[in-house]
Write a structure and sequence with these properties.
Helix content: 25-40%
Largest sheet: none
Distance between the termini: 52 Å
Structural class: mainly alpha
Number of strands: 0
Number of helices: 3
Order of helices and strands: HHH
Radius of gyration: 22 Å
Shape: elongated
Strand content: under 5%
Length: 115
């Protein structure tokens, strides 16, 4: 929390610098918040921009959630087809692997329902 609030304060200092003052009309977000209001703003608005993966990983070990057919262990008729099944985050963007996972899920469903 301290680091997030400090980063907002640094951004405010930069925006209020003499060099940028002609280009800045007002602070839009978080506005003139300070103290507890600023802490609440950070707490309510914080998100991660990291690509999520591994929370429902595919595999056969005790920590795995789905099998090779994207079926959730122990839950009938439930499959997961998103980046959460990847055991590790890829070294590149997750979009391409997610497309492949989605296409594989479509193939599996076509086979299951003879489409």
């Amino acid at each position: 929390m301290k680091a997030a609030i400090t980063s907002i304060e640094i951004c405010r200092e930069i925006a209020d610098s003499h060099a940028l003052r002609p280009f800045i009309k007002r602070e839009l977000m978080p506005g003139k918040l300070k103290g507890i209001a600023l802490t609440d703003f950070v707490r309510d608005g914080i998100v991660t921009y990291w690509h999520q993966a591994g929370s429902a990983k595919m595999g056969r070990d005790p920590m795995s959630v789905v099998d090779a057919n994207l079926k959730v262990y122990g839950v009938n008729s439930l499959r997961i087809a998103d980046g959460s099944i990847m055991p590790r985050v890829t070294t590149g963007n997750t979009m391409a692997p997610c497309v492949v996972i989605g296409e594989r899920a479509a193939e599996l469903l076509k086979e299951q329902y003879n489409l």
